[in-house]
Amino acid sequence: MKIGIVGLPNVGKSTLFNALTEAGADAENYPFCTIDPNIGVVPVPDPRLDWLAEIYEPKKKTPTVIEFVDIAGLVEGASRGEGLGNKFLAHIREVDAIAQVVRCFDDKNISHVDGDISPDRDIDIINTELMMADLAAVEKRLEKTEKQAKSGDKIYLKEAETLKMLINTLEEGKNIRQLELDQTAKRLVKELQLLSAKPIIYLANVNEDEIDSPDNELVEAVKIHAAQDGAKVVEISAKIEADIAELDEDEKEMFLEELGVNESGLDRVIKAGYELLNLITFLTAGEQECRAWTVEKGSTAPEAAGKIHSDMEKGFIRAEVVSFEDLKRVGSMAAAREEGLLRLEGKDYIVQDGDVCHFRFNV
Ligand SMILES: Nc1ncnc2c1ncn2[C@@H]1O[C@H](COP(=O)(O)OP(=O)(O)OP(=O)(O)O)[C@@H](O)[C@H]1O
Ligand SMILES: [Mg+2]
């Protein structure tokens, strides 16, 4: 699951990306790897996993991860090929969700491609480029579909009708994500990898000394825009995050305390990204390893087991499940069992966020 960091040039995308991946490199035990200089694997912070590791004292503690992709800056006209636009847009097609970095910091030494600091205009430029790229993709597909529809085949007629609806939406300047999609539309959006259909969060990148300061007009502008898009805003200062990422754990805590925050901006970005991807976490615990795993919301117990090993899914018998909250309240797995909090669940069980699972299976 990948999140693309998108925005105009010089808005702080790489600074944020470096902070995210730098922080990841320090994560205990996690076999951190940079797949590509522009793709970073980032551990998802989870206090539940920390608690389990304290109780079990396992040899290994393994967080779950998401990937961030640092995409080069888009400029106005990207969808017409300006500034290597087509290549960068192709990178965005590959990601599952978009984090749009919006410049809200002021620094005369760092030039803005369009002159002054204006979150509203910047968001419009980026979203317009994404919509234009979508429009081109949909129009191209419509040409093909219209030829196929000449046969009178209902599937193609319906497809053409849907494509026209998508074109209308884009021409009105609306993102595809704002639409309710039927099956045909869903299929087409997926096949065409439409950019304006991807889930989005906005990251308001503010000056170091303005983090969480009230009445920041620039951040307000981002919030208004995001609300129209049904999206969340996370306020960060990529610059501070880059500095924090270089500290060791103790220094980090002291620094955050001084700033009066209990969670780094990076953690907020990672969590928001995780939610955006419609993912939940289940946990496994034992003396060998305590681990957090990712599944899509709505996954069944065998599907979750399959994340661990395909044999576990194929030979699934049942899952022993206790919710993390219950487990923490009673303090141990033995106590959870005694109090009847450890449930036996079958193959239709829908895994819930925070379930601590043990799978029984046959090979
Ligand atoms: N919150 C901030 N406050 C002050 N300066 C910042 C902030 N965030 C980033 N910068 C600075 O802005 C400059 C541009 O940042 P960066 O290289 O990360 O931009 P970018 O979006 O990756 O640009 P490009 O699209 O060209 O790759 C850097 O000098 C960086 O230190
Ligand atoms: Mg960059």
Automatic annotation (TrEMBL):
Domain OBG-type G: 1-256
Gene Ontology CC: cytoplasm
Stretches of the chain forming a coiled coil according to its record: none
UniProt superkingdom: Bacteria
Cofactor(s) of this protein: Mg(2+)
Classification via InterPro entries: ATPase_YchF/OLA1, Beta-grasp_dom_sf, G_OBG, GTP-bd, P-loop_NTPase, TGS, TGS-like, TGS-like_dom_sf
Keywords, alphabetical: ATP-binding, Magnesium, Metal-binding, Nucleotide-binding
Keyword match ATP-binding: yes
Domain TGS: 278-361
GO molecular function: ATP binding; ATP hydrolysis activity; GTP binding; metal ion binding; ribosomal large subunit binding
SUPFAM superfamilies from the UniProt entry: P-loop containing nucleoside triphosphate hydrolases, TGS-like
Residues given in the record as ATP binding sites: N10, V11, G12, K13, S14, T15
Function: ATPase that binds to both the 70S ribosome and the 50S ribosomal subunit in a nucleotide-independent manner.
PANTHER family attached to this UniProt entry: OBG GTPASE FAMILY (PTHR23305), OBG-TYPE G DOMAIN-CONTAINING PROTEIN (PTHR23305:SF18)
Family label: Belongs to the TRAFAC class OBG-HflX-like GTPase superfamily. OBG GTPase family. YchF/OLA1 subfamily.
Protein's name in the database: Ribosome-binding ATPase YchF
Organism: Halanaerobium polyolivorans
